[in-house]
Amino acid sequence: ASASSSVSIDVRICQYESSLEIKGRSPVRIAASAWGEYFVSTNDRVVIVRSDGVQSGEIANLSEALAVAVSDSGEVFVAEAGTGGIKCFDLNGTLVRIIAPEGSCTFPSDMCLSRNGDLYVVDSKQHCVHIFSSGGGLAGKFGIYGVSTAQFDFPTGIACDPGTGNILVADQNNRRIQVFDTTGAFLYQFGNGGSS
After folding, report:
1. Predicted TM-score of the model (pTM)
2. At residue 183, what are phi and psi to the nearest 5 degrees?
């Protein structure tokens, strides 16, 4: 798409309904804040949008921003596929700290924040989940390539359950959702587990 073209998407979250226009950019992932703003990754930036659909800010100059997560305290975490790193920004788009240096992940396609503030990042090409402390630094890792429990084949999505604290991973090519505790211990799975 050229710089002058626009992509229009409908945003329907809870009771809000509006149209969001992001000029020349395609939305990749969305994170919702506790105070009602949405954070939309669009490859080279994260666009911050109010619940009425009006853009209220952005975090620019990113390298293939895929995953985005936002804390209740207003920290914005961005995983860049272009660098394999994860950065933390404030709401003004200022870099606060490096969570994971460049090359830490191969293809960080999604992430979520746990109740205790740890960041869980699904790495599709390494077939694993990296656990980073919100202050920065690797706190753990789980998963390898395979079809058995606690193994992945190109995982693409992740969610942190705010009620139980469990971590749910969308194991794309094995066609299942696997559920883990916060240490990465396998609990159970649902889906057809790779059968046709």
Report:
1. 0.86
2. -90, -10
Compute the Cα dihedral for 169, 159, 85, 31 and give only its sign.
positive
Spatial CB neighbours of 156, under 8 Å, sequence gap ≥ 6: 109, 110, 122, 124, 170, 172
3-state helix, strand, coil in the chain (%, to 5): 0, 55, 45
Residue for token digits 């990754």? 41
- pLDDT per residue over 47-76, tens digit each? 999 999 889 999 999 999 999 999 999 999
- Encoded tokens for 82: 């272009």
Beta-carbon count within 10 A of 163 CB: 6
Quick one: residue 94, left, alpha or beta (phi over 0 = left, psi -120 to 50 = alpha)? beta
